[in-house]
Amino acid sequence: MVEIERHDYDVVVIGAGGAGLRAAIETRAQGLKTAVICKSLFGKAHTVMAEGGIAASMGNVNSRDNWQVHFRDTMRGGKFLNNWRMAELHAKEAPQRVWELETYGALFDRTKDGRISQRNFGGHEYPRLAHVGDRTGLELIRTLQQKIVSLQQEDRAEFGDYEARLKVFQECTITELLKDSGAGGPQGTADRIAGAFGYWRESGRFVRFDAPAVVLATGGIGKSFKVTSNSWEYTGDGHALALRAGASLINMEFVQFHPTGMVWPPSVKGILVTESVRGDGGVLRNSENRRFMFDYIPEVFKDNYADSEEEADRWYDDPDNNRRPPELLPRDEVARAINSEVKEGRGSEHGGVFLDVSSRLPAEEIVRRLPSMHHQFKELADVDITAEPMEVGPTCHYVMGGVEVDPDTAASRVPGLFAAGEVAGGMHGSNRLGGNSLSDLLVFGRRAGAGAVEYVARTGFRPVVHESDVDAAMRRVAAPFEPGDGASENPYALHAELQQVMNDLVGIIRSGEEMRTALGQLHELKRRAKNLAVEGNRQFNPGWHLALDLRNMLLVSECVAAAALLRTESRGGHTRDDHPAMDPAWRGKLLACSVYDGSVDVAEQPQSPMREDLLSLFAAEELRKYYTEDELP
Ligand code: FAD
Fold this sequence. Notes:
The protein has 633 residues and is α/β, with parallel strands linked by helices. It has 18 helices and 20 strands.
């Protein structure tokens, strides 16, 4: 038996983005010995890339805002498929979480009278996004890390060891969740979480963490798509780890394509152009210079969006007496509109449309409000956004689907396994509103941490890992160095093929036939992936890392395609060419993915009916657009 590095903790948090850090702060603050593990450098997590802001109904810029309005906007954005309890908790608790960040040291942009400033964003009725220029995620991560350092200093004072109760393991990838053997606890414990197995990216050495509770906070899945705003870390690891451990994923058919990614030059295709550009007055035009979004206001949103340029422009100064510009429709609507313009031949030279802020704001104001965008376009595309429009098009950005969790505790179906942040499903329904992710991370990161603390206290047992499971985990990760007799496969080539399949067949507009073709191709890729082969040894070997990540990407991509095939309607981030309308009969149904013997199974399950007091926040005629007659009170 190979001896491997072993650590014992009360809680292991996998992921050091906003959700993971907030969860770890909670578990440590409540006295539990906590490990935070991340596969990139500490501070690099995806959260750091968030630009526009964090949504919370603090009412600083428009005092009419409150949690009920935020709740309504979130449900509308998700086309009423959201887990309403999560949307309720999120809307109620987001302001507290933002104020709490200030107590950790965050410095948000201010209003003239010194309050936290809030900006407009798509789908939000009032200015609601607290922000730090267009670098909000950086401030969020910086502040959470600062809080972690302060907790570590407390431990140093108390125990003489900074890491006595909170330690970060960076550049460490988890490949397997471990379950209890049943040897140490009461009967029936065998299905509980017992820890996690992984490897150090630099040395390739194996490591294991034994713990009764694991919080997954691993982010999204975007690297399965060719054009994406996501970085190399987003390979769906947490989604796949949860599935393989016996948890279920919901809403996997809903993938958000952000309307505005860069389209040129090719090397930067997909990089995000923040929605703040539109929130701060930027407009979308086609090659005929037409502000085309007025042609794409869907029936369900007609009452809330301006139908003329004059009214839309007046809204920026007088939002109480005018309707919002259609550029600020939810992301799914804007992405589909851009897609249609390009398809119908009214796109830009490089296959996008034009996003113009240069004719809308003075140059110095653009640089002040959007410093990263100014820098990004100047450096990467040689475009000065204060003088000319940007070329933009849809890019895979966010996955609404994720681990099915209890809304209050973030507990998954597997005892001891919790999930928060982008890896968790339910909160955003079929489409996430911009800014609602950063607030989701804090609200449910804290709740997942609290859920894990409560679970550890309640169960009170230490798990015992099956040694044979650890051996199997070691064999699995070592497999690409010992390929079988079949023709060996190159991980980079296979990844490129996967991305092409997902982009071409499971992208922004889908059809049943495309999904069937995609599933066929994904099964074939999965078969070939058994022969993935890498050269060299385990010391920093990116080809090997990718080979391991591919196992997760393939599994999660299959869930997306399989669920997309079954949902025969169009809603939010799932648009079916062959079923173009939203079908109220589907609103009450969730598709839950599980894995049995390595195969994905997708089953329909009913959505729990919304509580009466929350339902009464909506006008009857609005509900009628989404609900079946039987469901209405
Ligand atoms: P992340 O921040 O991605 O953290 C995931 C962590 O998990 C990382 O530390 C990673 O290393 C680790 N990890 C993953 N797999 C493993 C593994 N196998 N083993 C160990 N560690 C692992 N949302 C907003 O609300 N407002 C915005 O303005 C906004 N702007 C955005 C801009 C861009 C360019 C992008 C890409 C997204 C933006 N989003 C925004 C979305 C938001 O940033 C993400 O949804 C959110 O940050 C996800 O946070 P998280 O904590 O769930 O995961």
